[in-house]
């Protein structure tokens, strides 16, 4: 791809991510019980992305880890998946801190400010990495970029809606701006900072673990009254798109 058009396209994508952070509160149709079909659909797409794109790429990056560290094949693979586990564990810890700050109540009454900023800080790290990967992905094709963008766009809708549900006032006042700024900073870093392939693999692993936890956190609790069929439809549709991409790539 030519560098200039690619940078412009990824800039527009980063701006679209930022728009989700800034305006998710205006998507009133998402605030419904039972859970909005669109949120469950978005969660299914995000999980599909993790299992059909991130996980296979992690297996491929294990070779890079083996060459860079001198570890044997099994140890290199374990290292990659440990990074994914770290991403999952970090966001699990943040979610547990949020529940503890409410005394176990599933409401947003009197959330502690420091807990909110812990949540936003971890989320800003994740969105910054995702924006960085817009310009530094293993798959540099247009179709692969479009699938990455679509999956992450829907993931941000789900994750930001959940964050705002926990801390609506402070999210609207300050949190959304922090996430938007982190997104644009990550995009800019992707243009200016060329990390080694070993680091890119680590970032992919961390993102995969974080997304798995965030999607499961939004879909599994009983009080969410989540919808299985839209979730399954999102995952299946994304799987079909991935298969279609592979067919197109092999035939070209």
Please describe what this structure looks like.
39% of the residues are buried. The protein has helices at residues 3-23, 37-69, 73-101, 113-133, 142-166, 168-192, 197-219, 228-251. Mean pLDDT is 80; it is low at 106-110. The protein has 252 residues and is an all-alpha fold. The longest helix is centred in the first third of the chain and has 33 residues, at 37-69.
How far apart, in Å, are the first and last alpha carbons? 16 Å
Largest sheet: none
Structural class: mainly alpha
Rg calculated over all Cα atoms: 18 Å
Sheet-strand content, in percent, reads under 5%
Average per-residue pLDDT, rounded, comes to 80
Determine the oligomeric state from the structure. single chain
Helix content: over 70%
Number of domains: 1
Order of SSEs, N→C? HHHHHHHH
Q: Number of DSSP helices?
A: 8
Low-confidence stretches: 106-110
Count of extended strands:
0
Outline: globular
Features:
8 helices, 252 residues, mainly alpha
Provide a brief overview of the structure.
The chain is mostly helical. The chain contains eight helices and no strands.
């Amino acid at each position: 791809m030519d560098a200039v058009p690619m940078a412009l396209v990824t800039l527009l994508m980063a701006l679209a991510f930022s728009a989700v952070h800034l305006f998710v509160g205006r998507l009133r149709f998402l605030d419904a019980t039972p859970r909005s079909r669109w949120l469950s659909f978005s969660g299914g797409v995000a999980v599909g992305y993790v299992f059909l794109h991130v996980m296979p790429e992690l297996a491929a990056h294990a070779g890079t880890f083996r060459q860079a560290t001198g570890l044997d094949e099994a140890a290199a693979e374990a290292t990659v998946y440990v990074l994914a586990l770290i991403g999952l564990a970090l966001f699990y810890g943040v979610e547990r801190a949020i529940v503890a700050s409410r005394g176990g109540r599933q409401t947003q009454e009197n959330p502690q400010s420091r807990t909110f900023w812990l949540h936003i800080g971890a989320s800003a790290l994740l969105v910054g990495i995702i924006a960085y990967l817009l310009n530094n992905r293993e798959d540099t094709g247009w179709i692969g970029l479009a699938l990455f963008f679509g999956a992450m766009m829907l993931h941000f809708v789900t994750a930001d809606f959940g964050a705002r549900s926990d801390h609506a006032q402070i999210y609207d006042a300050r949190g959304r701006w922090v996430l938007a700024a982190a997104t644009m900073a990550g995009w800019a870093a992707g243009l200016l900072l060329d990390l080694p392939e070993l680091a890119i693999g680590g970032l992919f692993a961390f993102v995969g673990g974080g997304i798995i936890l965030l999607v499961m956190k939004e879909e599994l609790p009983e009080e969410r009254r989540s919808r299985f069929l839209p979730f399954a439809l999102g995952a299946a549709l994304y799987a079909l798109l991935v298969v279609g991409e592979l067919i197109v790539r092999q035939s070209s």
